Amino acid sequence: MSAPLLEVEDLHVGFRGADGIVEAVRGVDFSVAPGEIVGVVGESGSGKSLSMLAVMRLLGTTARITGGRVRFAGEDLLAAGEARMRDIRGRDIAMVFQDPQSALNPALTIGRQMTDVVRAHRRVSAGGARRIAAEALERVGISDAARRLDAYPHQFSGGMRQRALIAMAIACRPRLLIADEPTTALDVTVQAQIVNLIAELRRDLDLAVVFISHNLQLVAEIVDRVMVMYGGRVVEDGPVADIETAARHPYTRLLKACVPSLQGPLGPLTTIEGAPPRLGRMPAGCPFAPRCPQAVDRCEREMPALVADAGRRVACWRPQ
Amino acid sequence: MNRLIQLVRTADWTGWLGAAIVLVMLGAAIAAPLIAPYDPVAINIEHRLTAPDATYWLGTDQAGRDVLSRVIYGARASLAVGIGAVIIGALIGVSAGLFAAYKGGLGDQITMRIVDAIASIPLLVWAIAIVGVLGVGPVAIGSLQLPNEVKIVTLIGCLFSPVFARVTYAVAQRIVSADYVKARYLQGASHWQIVTGDVLPNCLSPIIVQATLLVAIGIVIEASISFVGLGVQPPQPSWGTMLSDARNAIYSGEWWLPVFPGLAISVTVIGFNLLGDAVRDLFDPRHEARTLVA
Amino acid sequence: MFRLLAGRFFSSLGTLFFVGLVLFALTRAGPGSPARIVLGADATSAQITQFEQANGLDRPFLEQYVTWLADVLRGDFGKSFVTGRDVAGEIVDALPVTLSIVLFAFAIALVFGVGIGIWAALRLGGPMASVTRLGVVLGLSIPAFWLGIVLIRFIAVDLRWLPPGGYAPLSSGLMTHLQTIAMPAISLAVYYIAVLARMTQASLQEALRGDYVRTARAMGLSSPRIVVYALLNALPPVINLAALSFGYMFGWALIIEQVFNIPGLSRALLNAISQRDFLLLQGIVFLFTAIFVLANLGADLVNRVLDPRQRAAA
């Protein structure tokens, strides 16, 4: 395996609350190889989006990185200045977000927004930037791209807006694309198109992708590897085929059971009992222990470490 | 009621300051005869233009009248006009809004067009012109003689009414077409029950917010009209006429003449604005796009 | 778009006619015939009848209104009862004075209001946020005419930096002109600085929380560019409010002119009132109303033109 493109070690992110800092990401380790596509799966509040925003150093004013290391292509991102981060964002690492409805500026044309991104990173003329933007739109499957550049976001459908956002993200040929639930706000049929588009772009552009989703089934179709997060921790991580057939963490297994299969008989919908742990009220032991059918005393008391074994990792005292 | 308890708990100190100012001013207006040290209209040429001292805390004016007493009595006219205009505006506006929302069709159209027309009237200019034409004399209704302020209150009230009409109209329309209200009609609820039980309680918080902020505007308008001589008539004390007197004596050096009545207006208006903002933050935290301007 | 524009225009025109009728009725409802005031207390009843006939005051009310309206539509506001001059001429004399003060005040309000608002929005949360908030409440609460009196008292009388009142037209030199309108314009502007600053701050803060701002940051755009992105979405309501404010400022300019003893529309209006000069009064109030209605219309149009969604929908 080649040197990883993105390496995250022991990342901690906290919110400043009334009584001190409340940790929402509690020691996350993972890496992404060049050209690899990784699915990050978990419920809302599991820390998956927050970890990725931390990688981009886009946490805003309330949350902050409280510890860990983030290296991109060997460079320490947590030590980089804001100006350096601005260069990296959009040029080396790009990120697209959940709701394409509000993620594009309603007051500017698609073309203007795209060319602004291109010209923020490359010394090109206005015409050159426009050509690059049109190419990117074409690449994400928007026909008649040159004319569509003059459209406003409200003139696009939801799926087209998400395509335009992805086009904006890949216009400067980044090496890593972070897609934060890019399909959640879309129709089911459009979801599949966007997922396929991302798979296609990754192949054509040799792009590494981190695909964040709460839907294991959806990402399983295109990713190489799945990382499952729960309670601000990585609980399981491994090649997609292994996770599909032989998940070791009870949470992953339950997560898989929750998704109704399109093949096979239609059984009752499975749900996981209980609710995810609340911020600031994390259990001392395994975060999943209160809801885990297999939990024993030890799970409640001690936090299991993420143990690597044969290309897989799992954080559980009683892995399957 | 829960809202009220919440208000008491969460309002920040600026809201409390506003409420305190409003209460103090209301108290001064109501209890003026008890707390004013002197007769506000008693002329005392011997002591004319006395600088503030232990006897006359805020000094005396050109006719030797006590400025503090006049400021205290002045609160009566200001608050009466400000609050009175808002009550009149709310009565007219809420009725118009309810009527339009309930009547629908042509009645709705005509009522709301009239509301729009009134809203496109420059309040101050019209108030000045109308009072000017009607004259500043008292209004006689039968044997009852009402002071000139009655005209001002009514005028400002009419011109405030669109604000209330629009708020009520929007809420009433939304509620009348809501499914649960339709269901209640089917269960035999009367219009009256729906209006008092659903529509009005929902209008209440925006109306209170607007009313508080409009009182502030009403007070400034009253003072301005009195300043140009068309409002409260001498010798009755009012902040606007006191400032008018002060304007005429601007060169002679009696700084206390313009400063105190102006401070009285400003502090009162600050009180209503702070209170209004606090109430708005409480009832309607996402009010970004709505600002009252006059 | 055109239909909408035309619709708004005609509804504004309708408003003006309606309002004109109310105004007309009110002037006729007031006590005291203008003849008595114009001709003096010792005029004979024959003289008064003659005056009323000459000015059409003896005719039925609606006929008077229709005649007046028809004349106004032709640009003829009638003749002043008192001076015999064209009302339009009287207004043309006084309007530039008021207009110059209002425009100057409007420029001040726009620059400082929007400027302070942007500055405050970008310094969200710091101690300056409270200072700005306090300043805004102060600005909203200090009556313009009192501010004017205080300015005269301390800047003109004590420090002698500026003349305490009066008016010098632009033709007497720019500096002289500005010296006479500086204090009136500042007095008039303070309230609107506060109004616009508050709106700008709220609107920009809201825009900066938008998802598209996060997208722009994730794409590596520079901070100034991101602020411009947010401003494009934040400014339409501010401009809308500014247009409304422009209409209101004319009203308050009346009071300010009284404070500073400026011979603008205010003096003309108050003279018309005291002399029962109905046609002049109607002309001036009609002008103010028209300006106000146009400002409202402008505010509406500005919103529609600036917002691409509304532009397309119309």
Tell me about this structure:
The complex is a heterotrimer of chains A (320), B (294) and C (314). With 320 residues, chain A is of the alpha/beta class. Chain A folds into two domains: 6-92 and 174-314, 3-Layer(aba) Sandwich (Rossmann fold), CATH 3.40.50.300; 102-173, no CATH class. Chain A is 33% helix and 24% strand. Chain A is built from twelve helices and twelve strands. Chain A has an eight-stranded mixed β-sheet with strand order 6-7-8-3-9-10-12-11, with helices on both faces. In chain A, helix 4 packs across helix 5 and helix 5 (126-139) packs across helix 7. The mean pLDDT of chain A is 88. By secondary structure, chain B is mostly helical. Chain C contains 13 helices and no strands. Chain C has helices at 2-29, 34-39, 45-54, 61-73, 87-122, 127-141, 144-158, 174-208, 211-218, 223-260, 265-274, 278-306, 308-313. Chain C is globular, with a radius of gyration of 24 Å. Chains in contact: A-C, B-C. The interface between A and C is medium-sized, with 32 and 22 residues.
Layout: helices, strands, pairs:
The complex is a heterotrimer of chains A (320), B (294) and C (314).
Chain A: E1 6-17, E2 20-32, E3 37-41, H1 48-55, E4 63-72, E5 75-76, H2 82-88, E6 93-96, H3 100-103, H4 110-121, H5 126-139, H6 145-148, H7 158-170, E7 176-180, H8 188-205, E8 208-213, H9 216-220, E9 225-230, E10 233-239, H10 240-246, H11 250-258, H12 297-301, E11 307-309, E12 312-314
Parallel strand pairs in A: 3-8, 3-9, 6-7, 7-8
Antiparallel strand pairs in A: 1-2, 1-4, 4-5, 9-10, 10-12, 11-12
Helix pairs in contact in A: 4-5, 5-7, 7-8
Chain B: H1 2-10, H2 13-30, H3 32-35, H4 67-103, H5 105-119, H6 123-134, E1 139-141, E2 144-146, H7 149-176, H8 179-186, H9 191-227, H10 239-248, H11 256-283
Helix pairs in contact in B: 2-4, 2-11, 4-5, 4-7, 4-9, 4-11, 5-7, 6-7, 7-9, 9-10, 9-11, 10-11
Chain C: H1 2-29, H2 34-39, H3 45-54, H4 61-73, H5 87-122, H6 127-141, H7 144-158, H8 174-208, H9 211-218, H10 223-260, H11 265-274, H12 278-306, H13 308-313
Helix pairs in contact in C: 1-12, 5-8, 5-10, 5-12, 6-8, 7-8, 7-10, 8-10, 9-10, 10-12, 11-12
